[in-house]
Structure formats: structure tokens, C-alpha cells
Amino acid sequence: MRGNLIEQSDNHRYVLRDRTGEVEVVIPPEVAKDRQASPDELVGISGTLEKKGKTAHIVAHRFQKQ
């Protein structure tokens, strides 16, 4: 997915917004590798969708600035 990390909810959890909406994303430290992105920077994330009940989030396996 491509979008913008518009909000950080805790150490590794973010809200990613793209043109279809918003989703919570977990970016583990070993994937982030001290890279940071501001809300106006486009990022690319690949990962696994985890869903429990009505809530869902993505656990990132790859993270890069576009």
C-alpha cells in the first residue's frame, strides 16, 4: 500500500491514510530501522492484514519512503 502516516498512536502503531481511507499499521522496529516519515511524505508498506472481530490492522514487513 501507499499512503501517508498521518498519526502515531504509540511506539510502533500508526494510522496510514490513502485515497480509499485509513487503516492502523504496526511497524516493528526491525522493519522501521530508525526511518521516520512526516505526514506529508508518501510511504510504501507491505505486510499482513490481521483481523479480530470488527477491527483490523496491518503488520508491516517492508517500509520505505517513496
From TrEMBL:
Pfam families named among the record's database cross-references: BOF (PF04076)
Top-level taxonomic group: Bacteria
InterPro entries (UniProt xref): BOBF_sf, CarO-like
This protein's UniProt keywords: Signal
Entries under SUPFAM superfamilies matching the protein: Hypothetical protein YgiW (SSF101756)
Name this polypeptide is given: NirD/YgiW/YdeI family stress tolerance protein
Species per Swiss-Prot/TrEMBL record: Atlantibacter subterraneus
